[in-house]
Write a sequence for this structure.
């Protein structure tokens, strides 16, 4: 994501607002009617309250003044009427607030569900481009601003606007001359509000962006504390955080300074308006006492005060609208991201053999086949795990190719190893097998079927990966192993753990397989985490296995324990291995030596040693992997 320039606006605030309103209120039409009714009643009550003082002065106070036998019954009737109107205002405001809070919570709930569903459907390239902190900011900060807008800001804005309209009509009926004074101040206020709003809107969006960067940096530093301490980067980390935090401070200060100026500016313009109205109104009473009364002036002043207050309310709420729309724009940018393309028509199904032919079944048989549509029917192709890459080119960006003319094959049950320095393209090749990324040129087939024709879930179900960086999830050890096959029994879990030689260390833990793992397994050693990752792959029982530096984080003693289990795990499977320890790939059927995205040597261990090329130099220690 590019850096944001100050002064940048929401690309289409009107479109974003309309889309947001559609998402919030769609299907809630009865509640909309109640909300509008409540807002109208609340606005009417406010307007009446402002006009009440004028009628009370002219009809009650002045007639009672100097009267030797005052009758207070009329005053009591006025006060009871006023109390009734105030009660309506309180009840309608409570009703609207109660409804809007419920709508807001439901809307934010739906929004988070949509965002999470979208994240699960996005390709890995999206996460390559966006930092986790920025993504998390959309779930936390941006949804919070939307919640504040829908639950409170929107009602206050609409109520203020409706009140403003009713007050404007009342003032016009009271005195058009004084109304002209108010209109003049409206234009002055709008000009000031527009100027301040333009500034604050740009900085509010910058604030949200900077906040996402800061959150991402904090998360990154928390995850990398061990590395930071090992390399004594504490001071550098603090310095970098101070720089990012300073930028956030600047954008927040500017945003709130410009936004905070709206209230005082509009309030003082309201005070000035009040003084001018008193002067003009006094002249009207003096010149035409029978036409314009003290009560009428008092009512107009109260209406003008209400008018100014609602203008100020609208100005302040406009800041919240701008902030919320900036957040909504970021949320919709996520929701509008292109999902991982999956237009395959080949599926993976369970099969059994009957009378020499394969037939599809629902129960677990231990055998799978690719269901390939052909004409009006389909063909069942046994899942064996034969892989062919034919003249494949690939680049993460279209303008930069990182793999050049890669061709290789792996027969079912063969072990293929990739050797090369960091950045040579080893991991990239394995990422292409399960279509984490799509190739630009060439073909990749499994069992003779182009993987582009396969449904993504079915393709990925046919293989398992053990990565260098393990990912464990909050839950028990049993749950983490079963992650590879949700319907696995406890017996299957223990069998997989034994295969990976994880069973013994699991039993030594306090709660055994029911030990709860948190924070990616911080209560486990790196080797133990890797063993669980291997067990998770084993329980999936796929015909194709990808081991990406799978034993690089395991000490020599642990590796010896794992190796026998790994050998069993690889039996009768097509295996792709990436390893820096060349001793682990000696028994591979074929070894591919990569350099700058090209295969420069291929053959088994003996062939490559005899060739006395790059592999020979690496194996004998004459050169090292970088």
């Amino acid at each position: 994501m590019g850096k944001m320039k100050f002064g940048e606006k929401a690309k289409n605030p009107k479109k974003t607002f309309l889309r947001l309103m559609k998402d919030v209120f769609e299907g809630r039409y009865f509640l909309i009617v109640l909300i509008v009714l409540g807002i109208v009643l609340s606005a009417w009550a406010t307007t009446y309250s402002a006009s009440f003082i004028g009628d009370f002065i002219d009809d009650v106070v002045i007639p009672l003044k100097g009267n030797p036998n005052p009758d207070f019954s009329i005053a009591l009737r006025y006060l009871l009427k006023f109390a009734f109107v105030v009660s309506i205002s309180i009840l309608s405001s409570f009703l609207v607030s109660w409804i809007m809070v419920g709508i807001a919570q439901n809307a934010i709930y739906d929004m988070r569900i949509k965002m999470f569903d979208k994240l699960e459907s996005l390709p890995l390239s999206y996460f390559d481009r966006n930092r986790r902190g920025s993504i998390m900011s959309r779930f936390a900060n941006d949804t919070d601003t939307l919640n504040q807008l829908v639950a409170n800001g929107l009602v206050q804005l609409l109520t203020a606007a409706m009140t403003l309209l009713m007050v404007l009509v009342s003032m016009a009926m009271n005195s058009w001359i004084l109304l002209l004074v108010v209109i003049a101040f409206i234009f002055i206020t709008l000009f000031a509000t527009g100027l301040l709003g333009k500034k604050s809107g740009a900085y509010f969006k910058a604030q949200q962006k900077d906040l996402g960067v800061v959150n991402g940096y904090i998360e990154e530093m928390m995850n990398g504390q061990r590395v930071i301490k090992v390399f004594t980067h504490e001071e550098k980390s603090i310095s970098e955080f101070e720089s990012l935090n300073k930028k956030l401070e600047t954008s927040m200060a500017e945003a709130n300074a410009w936004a905070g100026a709206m209230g005082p500016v509009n309030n003082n313009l309201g005070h000035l308006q009040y003084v001018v109205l008193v002067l003009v109104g006094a002249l009207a009473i003096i010149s035409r006492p029978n036409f314009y009364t003290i009560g009428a002036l008092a009512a107009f002043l109260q209406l003008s005060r209400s008018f100014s207050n609602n203008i100020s309310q609208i100005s302040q709420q406009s800041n919240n609208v701008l902030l919320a729309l900036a957040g909504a724009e970021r949320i919709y940018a996520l929701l509008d991201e292109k999902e991982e393309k999956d237009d395959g028509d080949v599926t993976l199904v369970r099969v059994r053999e009957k009378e020499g032919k394969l037939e599809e079944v629902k129960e677990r048989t231990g055998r799978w086949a690719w269901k390939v549509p052909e004409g009006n029917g389909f063909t069942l192709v046994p899942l064996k795990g034969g892989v062919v890459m034919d003249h494949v080119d690939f680049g993460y960006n279209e303008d930069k190719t990182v793999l050049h003319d890669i061709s290789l094959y792996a027969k079912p049950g063969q072990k293929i190893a990739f050797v090369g320095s960091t950045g040579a393209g080893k991991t990239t090749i394995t990422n292409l097998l399960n279509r984490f990324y799509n190739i630009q040129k060439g073909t990749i087939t499994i069992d003779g079927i182009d993987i582009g024709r396969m449904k993504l879930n079915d393709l990925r179900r046919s293989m398992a990966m053990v990565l260098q960086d393990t990912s464990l999830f909050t839950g028990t050890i049993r749950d983490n192993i079963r992650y590879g096959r949700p319907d696995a029994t406890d017996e299957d879990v223990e069998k997989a753990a034994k295969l990976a030689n994880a069973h013994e260390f699991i039993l030594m833990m306090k709660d055994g397989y029911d030990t709860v793992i948190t924070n990616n397994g911080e209560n486990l050693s790196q080797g133990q985490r890797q063993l669980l990752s291997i067990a998770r792959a084993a329980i999936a029982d796929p015909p194709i296995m990808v081991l990406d530096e799978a034993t690089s984080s395991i000490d020599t003693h642990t590796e010896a324990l794992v190796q026998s289990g790994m050998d069993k795990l690889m039996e009768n499977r097509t295996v792709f291995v990436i390893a820096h320890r060349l001793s682990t790939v000696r028994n591979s059927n074929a070894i591919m030596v990569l350099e700058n995205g090209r295969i420069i040597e291929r053959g088994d261990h003996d062939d490559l040693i005899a060739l006395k090329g790059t592999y020979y130099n690496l194996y004998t220690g004459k050169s090292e992997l970088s």
The chain is about 60% helix and 15% strand. The chain has a mean pLDDT of 84. The longest strand covers residues 347-354.
